């Protein structure tokens, strides 16, 4: 196993991850993270978002740079389409989370990845958000992720990577389980 | 035994708490080492099996596998599965061969550190001893999620200790929460009673009762999985938390799976994730959990097939087989409004945990779990038996008690001799294995 870890490289520092697990077991309070995003409305359905700081390991942390994003809606929604819709960012989040998990698990299991491609679809009935039918929910009623993975492993081993990545995915958990959300005025 | 609640202290070298299979097995090995001890039992021998299990329950292990130190199964049906009365008779018979005194109807109220070891205070006596063996069981308290308290009035709520048989449930639909052995067994018999069952399924372990003509426990044993030691698994925490496999002991061996339950009309839903304003919320992860369990079953069967091949058994065994993937509903139900009246009762098959509220020693971690290394508790001279994967995968089974008791009694004996023997109570699991196996 150790030889395998040395000879394969998915660009994941598994030793650091396992070390973090060990360190956090001694100081579980440091494992509490808070993620932040700030949003500034521009006009219409267009908003501008900034992500920079977060909290973790007991102190304020920061990304290496400030990241900015735009959300908007496409022209079929009578919008100006300055950016993806918020629900598309959710799909990005899910794919990014699962794929990062696959890379980490593959590294840990000594599996060399060559390519990992995911296509993500979320379907919804917009009668919900348009308030046309109270029995239709606003959000996705179905989310489908399809992975196409080229790796030095059997199909079963690759399936096991995908299964394990779901088990340890924050965004998969967020989408499949209820979350307490509070929205209030500053 | 006098019933006077006198507090005169009695001295003994070791006190074993609990006269179930684990305590009796430990007593056998302590006696073999000439260590004087008593067994204290809150009720009768096999008390949990008598009073804290449902009526139809049978052991998940076949009779031939029901071995205790110095005793094998000698009955007429080695491939059968013991009912609770049969198991109780088996353990009663074993207890009669025990040479140490068993003080039944003697409840331990507290264990404190003492001058020369420990003070064990019961509702009858006080014992002073150098060593204590906790064999009080792994399933004393039902584990019920906090959201159970949010169930609206009028919905019956039963734990694994409350449930006896389906006819004690109110008429109407039943939500069974949890799909380990207990959850699938209860879903099966409740559905057969005519009540429509919804089964909330999270992480689970799928296993056929028989594979290639043999009981699955035979495969687990011969392939060495049951003997796997705690230093041989990658993630011991995970191994200890693993849900019990979806197995049932029945008069005729049969496989109980989410697939067979779905065929019976049981509605499969995801893990119960929330209960808000009378609405049950089920996780959207049903497919994930089922796919993972199917994959793991495939890997387990691969292990068995590899074993058969490398041990030249392929010629004498039926050929390998693989089982159909678990049929997951295309659109699993994600929420249920309890006000609709579909569900009249909820059975929490969400596991059990040991009860150590009487153990007044600094041996618990931040989550209240007993700190121990392979049964050697973090207090000198204190040992525990019978917990899941205590020292081996088989530790929580009847037949797992023998090896654990042999090794832990060796550690206990060395502790009694004192540090001059080179033993300390801080031995890690690996070292204690080595010392016990020499």
UniProtKB/TrEMBL annotation, chain A:
Gene3D superfamilies linked to this entry: 3.30.300.20
Native organism: Halomonas cerina
One Pfam family cited in the UniProt record for this chain: OsmC
Domain of life: Bacteria
Protein name: Putative OsmC-like protein
Lineage: Bacteria, Pseudomonadati, Pseudomonadota, Gammaproteobacteria, Oceanospirillales
TrEMBL record, chain B:
Keywords: Oxidoreductase
Keyword Transport: no
InterPro entries: Auxin_biosynth/cation_transpt, FAD/NAD-bd_sf
Listed Pfam families: Pyr_redox_3
Superkingdom of origin: Bacteria
GO function terms (MF aspect): flavin adenine dinucleotide binding; monooxygenase activity
Protein's name according to its UniProt entry: Putative flavoprotein involved in K+ transport
Species in which this protein is naturally found: Halomonas cerina
